[in-house]
Amino acid sequence: MTEFAGKVVVVTGGGSGIGRATARLFGRLGARVHVADIHGTAAETVAAEVGDGVAHTVDCSDPAAVEALAERVFGEGRGVDVLHNNAGIGHAGDLEQTTMEDWQRVIGVNLLGVAYGVQAFVPRLLEQGRPATVVNTASAAGLFALPQMGPYCASKFGVVGLTEALSAELRGRGVRMCAVCPGVIDTPIVRNSILRGEPETRRDSIVDFYSRRGTSPEEVAEAVLDAVRGGKLIRTVPRAEVGVPWALRRISPRLAGALISRLAGVIGPR
């Protein structure tokens, strides 16, 4: 349980769900974990759970706040070995009821939040003189499109594309990139999602479905760990649920479209 002893891990959106599970996992493996979350109390709770943890109250949609986080973390003089850009929000809704503010909020947190993390941390990672890994939380909805999820899909497709582009750019320079793409995961994100129109009328049933059928955030944390250990550029989880339609989409878009249409309303916000 000392695989990451002496290593430094930063997790955004670390106060709950996937971020909390990731922070706790790396903490058990001996890492010093910086837990960043917009909800400071939640970050403090998780930081206390991981042992060698530090809490930070950060709105990842604010570039100045993310830059300040990087300054504080690197100010300790220990560098960073793993950055998990995980902060995100959910959205589903009929286009007619979706607002411009919805678009701005979803893109601002899910996509630009990752971009701000990359801009604040990666130049410092390149200068620190040792290898590091950046894991970005995308989604199944970043691999295949789902109806009533335009803003969310746009943000998560963006995360996947950003990750692939930076992986090509940074190859051989000591910073590895990975996008983790979860499917139905039992986390608080669905309860807290922005829902408009018809999906809002089904909020209770959607929350119930995710609670009963969702994969645990701990399984996603294991996928993050696998990515850090040297896994694939795109890591789906669960593989059967997400990897199969994604692979089919590349082989036969028509068959994939039929399968994905049946999944619509099931695979929603991660």
Would you mind describing this structure in some detail?
By secondary structure, the chain is α/β, with parallel strands linked by helices. It has a single domain, classed as Rossmann fold (3-Layer(aba) Sandwich), CATH 3.40.50.720. It is built from 10 helices and 9 strands. A 7-stranded parallel beta sheet has the order 3-2-1-4-6-7-9, with helices on both faces. Helix 4 runs parallel beside helix 5 (150-170). The radius of gyration is 18 Å and the shape is globular. The model is unreliable at 265-270 (pLDDT under 50).
> Structural class of the secondary structure composition?
alpha/beta
* CATH 2nd-level architecture: 3-Layer(aba) Sandwich
Unreliable runs, pLDDT <50, ≥5 residues? 265-270
CATH fold-level topology? Rossmann fold
State the end-to-end distance. Answer: 29 Å
Helix content: 40-55%
In CATH, the homologous superfamily goes by the name NAD(P)-binding Rossmann-like Domain
Radius of gyration (CA) equals 18 Å
Number of helices: 10
Domain count, please report it. Answer: 1
Strand content: 15-25%
Overall pLDDT = 89
What is the makeup of the main sheet? 7 strands, parallel
| Shape type | globular
